[in-house]
Design a protein that fits this description.
alpha+beta; 21 helices
């Protein structure tokens, strides 16, 4: 007991003495850069030209292997999307195994096998690794390429593209590159419905022959395996596979704009805008400025402590987050800062993003900001190194980019040698402010006026990056601007069947198909006068969503969870006076604003703000030519928050004496859902 007491006392005094030596008012000195120990992987080349890398890690009885193809950037042209479809087809079975049989073999072994356009991946316990690797090799070397599977995948791709047509984020992801690099370049082209529909099964087979070859492939083993075992497995799986080395085509560098410009893409249904501020740069891994650029990007927009995030989110509340990206690449690449911002703050957000870029160029960076960036990066680097896959990834990067073997062993030493002066220097060299592109994808009628006050020239593009003129976006000069709101509504009522016919409709029903992110759901929708409704969606024979309202109360059931409709939802339903609300707009309780004219999907439309009896408002757009309702905008409550929602109506079809929309497209929270109406029926009141 005495010895315990003495030891405890000694520990106390040592701790107290240590505490006395710490001056917490002074920041502790930075320690030396961590020493990274990365063993070089074993490397050998098969007679067919395939390079094999082996990273040993015997902690777990598990092995993974990945095969990737070094082929550079590829221009697909009018068949853009063919390489991606080819990769999807590799997962559809082999010449001797159907997809179902293939998947069953993988599942029985508890393995993971997946294929892509550049190769494949397999992971399994030791005892099952060899047969799992042979399955991956079979899929790569002997794909079935059956027409039936191709038609299915092609249809899914088209459906997915359709669902993204009005999604501002999806549009931004393609037009930023298309405008910056050019639509006819490998990095500027993009897949469309038209290019996808143009792809044939023969194109898939041709792409396979042209862009998958062992001579340009790297096979990497990671895990509980020796180089001798890896060589045996690789030879057995791929040794007899033959093919020529794929020629890597060098791309021609593209110039940035002569001076900073705003490229505006109009998405009328967008409730928030996607902003991208960036410029093209050259930053290969061999670039001496690479390390300073890594830290410069982290300080500007690499995380939640970065300048962009703290400014646009924490200080101004413009967005949920703002980040930047400054990648290393063997080809010309792009520095880009971006954010998703609500439409009414787009111009202010652009000002702040450019301000932070200019602050970097001016060297407004503190030693503390740099030290924090280094500390975060050191930690992330060390964390990544705990995963053996990282070592394999680094080995491939070294091989493809012709880097020295100690590139990553000395990485943190070079990162930690970067100074504030280095950050300023590379910011001035690579982060442009006078010749950059500010690409805004959003609702032009809301954001354009504010952007025009920033002093930059504005160029207009459509959602496929084709230039458009101001005149193309403006309403036609011959549209009657003296028309009243009630006259617009009356024209709509007449266009879809007339007041008398509409008044006799007591209920409507339709089978529906909803496409959500490439997935198809079937269901039924029913409505009965004055405001009763029923909607049910199913997938694979199972109900995934049901919504019922009996005129006074209702509920929504989703994935087995039932929830009663809230007071706001019931009140909103109470605003509906009948199956065709426009019949009641001239009665008490409704107010209509004077019409203005805007374009909706290229069509002249009258815009009317409808104030309902509850006080809630909804904006409606009616075709100036046909009178049909084209779009509605309003707010809905979901998960305790109010969200902007847009519903577009198209494909008006005859239903008896009526004309009703056959397609509705709903947009909310940046997602679009297309609803196709089938077997649409309207039941009418009969008089004796």
């Amino acid at each position: 007991m005495k010895r315990v007491f003495i030891a405890s006392a000694a520990l106390f005094f040592c701790t107290a003495a240590f505490a006395q030596t710490i001056d917490r008012s002074k920041k502790p000195k930075e320690g030396p850069a961590p020493v990274i120990k990365i063993a070089d992987p074993a490397k050998f080349v098969l007679p067919n030209g395939m390079t094999v890398l082996v990273v040993e890690n015997h902690k777990l009885p598990k092995v993974t292997a990945s095969l990737s193809t070094n082929r550079g950037d590829i221009v697909e042209g009018d068949k853009a999307g063919v390489i991606g479809l080819m990769g999807d087809m590799l997962n559809e079975g082999t010449k001797t195994l159907s997809k179902e049989a293939f998947d069953e073999k993988v599942e029985v072994m508890g393995a993971s096998v997946s294929l892509n356009s550049g190769g494949g991946y397999v992971s399994a316990l030791n005892r099952y690794f060899e047969p799992s690797l042979m399955l991956m090799a079979d899929a790569l070397r002997n794909p079935a390429f059956e027409k039936e599977n191709f038609d299915k995948l092609k249809s899914q791709a088209v459906t997915n593209l359709k669902s993204q047509e009005k999604n501002a984020k999806s549009i931004s992801s393609r037009v930023v590159n298309a405008i910056s690099y050019g639509k006819n370049t490998a990095r500027g082209e993009f897949q469309t419905i038209q290019t996808t529909e143009a792809v044939t099964i023969d194109d898939i087979k041709s792409a396979y022959q042209k862009y998958l070859s062992p001579a340009s492939s790297i096979l990497t083993f990671v895990g509980d395996i020796t180089p001798a075992q890896a060589k045996e497995y690789a030879t057995k799986a791929f040794g007899s596979w033959t093919g020529k080395k794929i020629e890597i085509v060098k791309s021609t560098p593209v110039a940035n704009p002569a001076k900073t410009e705003i490229d505006l893409i109009d998405v009328p249904s967008a409730v928030q805008s996607e902003i991208s501020v960036g410029n093209l740069i050259n930053n290969p891994f061999t670039n001496p400025d690479h390390y300073a650029l890594v830290l410069a990007n982290h300080i500007l927009g690499g995380g939640s402590e970065s300048k962009l995030f703290m400014n646009l989110r924490e200080k101004h509340g413009f967005t949920y987050g703002s980040y930047s990206n400054l990648p290393a690449d063997r080809y010309q690449t792009m520095f880009k800062a971006g954010a998703s911002v609500r439409n009414d703050k787009v111009d202010s957000a652009v000002v702040e993003m450019v301000r932070e870029i200019n602050n970097m160029r001016a060297g407004n960076i503190t030693a503390e900001e740099l030290a924090t960036a280094k500390a975060v990066y050191n930690g992330l680097f060390a964390l990544r190194m705990e995963n053996p896959q990282t070592t394999a990834s680094y080995a491939s990067t070294i091989l493809i980019n012709g880097l020295p073997n100690d590139f990553y062993r000395t990485y943190l030493q070079k990162i930690n040698a970067v100074t504030v002066a280095d950050i300023k220097r590379v910011a001035q060299k690579y982060l442009n402010s006078a010749d950059t592109r500010i690409v805004v994808v959003g609702k032009a009628s809301v954001v354009k006026e504010g952007l025009s006050k920033l002093g930059y020239p504005i160029k207009l593009y459509d959602i496929y990056a084709a230039p458009v003129t101001e005149a193309a976006m403006a309403p036609s000069a011959n549209v009657d601007k003296s028309i009243t709101a009630q006259a617009v509504v009356d024209k709509y009522i007449a266009a879809i069947g007339g007041k008398e016919a509409l008044s006799k409709v007591t209920s409507m029903s339709s089978d529906i198909t909803m496409n959500v992110s490439g997935q198809s759901l079937g269901g039924v929708m029913k409505n009965a006068a004055p405001n009763k409704s029923f909607m049910q969606l199913s997938m694979g024979g199972m109900t995934v969503m049901k919504r019922v309202f009996d005129g006074k109360k209702g509920y929504q059931e989703q994935m087995g969870q039932k929830k009663e409709l809230g007071a706001d939802e019931v009140a909103a339903a109470g605003d509906t006076k009948g199956l065709f609300p426009q019949l009641y707009y001239n009665t008490g309780g409704f107010k209509l604003s004077a019409p203005t004219v805007e374009k909706v999907n290229g069509e002249d439309a009258y815009k009317i703000i409808v104030t309902k009896p509850s006080g809630k408002t909804e904006t409606e757009y009616y075709s100036a030519k046909t009178g049909f309702l084209l779009k509605q905008e309003g707010k809905v409550k979901a998960a305790g928050q109010e969200l902007e929602q847009t519903m577009e109506f198209s494909n008006y079809t005859s239903v008896g004496a009526l004309k009703l929309p056959g397609t509705m497209t709903q947009s909310v929270m940046g997602q679009s859902f297309e609803i196709a109406m089938k077997k649409l029926q309207a039941q009418r009141r009969c008089y004796g």
